[in-house]
Write a structure and sequence with these properties.
This is AA1-like domain-containing protein. With about 170 residues, this protein is mainly β. The chain contains one helix and 13 strands.
């Protein structure tokens, strides 16, 4: 009887599926360029500056600084930035995977692994970029007079974006 029970247990263990969840960011299949509806005329596309600030500039789909890839991090939706960052401007991002992050006041490039910053996702149904996290309905709400993106921390006045799928450019 004990032998049969042990055999049944080994059989059940052998047929069980193991799910391995990656601990780092996983890129989705599409790299995108985001164009703000009613953005700065002729400068509607989101762009990441050397210091990680997000601004609206001309839409140049082949430029890595304008490209974002939706992905996952520990099961949460994220937006991975295609461009790389250099030592004098963002030493904290050199050699790291950068995501669009929200620190409670600003959306900007942040290390995807930084746990003190909320990641963001693209709400496809509404065309909005929104912060992940309980109690944060914050969204990217448009731009100021210098074309720097702005935030609505209530989530009521969000900018809308169209997306264009592009071939990723080397960072």
């Amino acid at each position: 009887m004990k032998f049969t029970s042990a055999l049944a247990l080994l059989s059940a263990v052998a047929s069980a599926q193991v799910v391995i969840v990656p601990t780092g960011p996983v890129r989705g299949p599409n790299t995108l360029v985001f164009k703000e509806i009613n953005g700065v005329k002729n400068n509607e596309c989101l762009t990441f500056t050397n210091d990680g600030t997000i601004v609206n500039t001309a839409c140049a789909n082949a430029n890595a600084d304008r490209q974002v890839t939706p992905g996952k991090l520990l099961g949460a939706d994220i937006l991975i930035i295609q461009r790389s960052f250099l030592q004098p401007f963002r030493p904290d991002l050199v050699g790291k995977t950068a995501c669009i992050g929200f620190n409670g006041t600003t959306f900007r490039a942040e290390d995807c692994a930084e746990r003190s910053v909320l990641t963001t996702y693209f709400d496809v149904g509404n065309g909005r970029i929104v912060a992940n996290g309980d109690g944060w309905p914050a969204c990217l709400s448009g731009h100021d007079s210098k074309a720097i993106v702005t935030v609505d921390d209530t989530g009521r006045s969000c900018a809308q974006f169209t997306i264009t799928a592009v071939t990723p450019t080397k960072p």
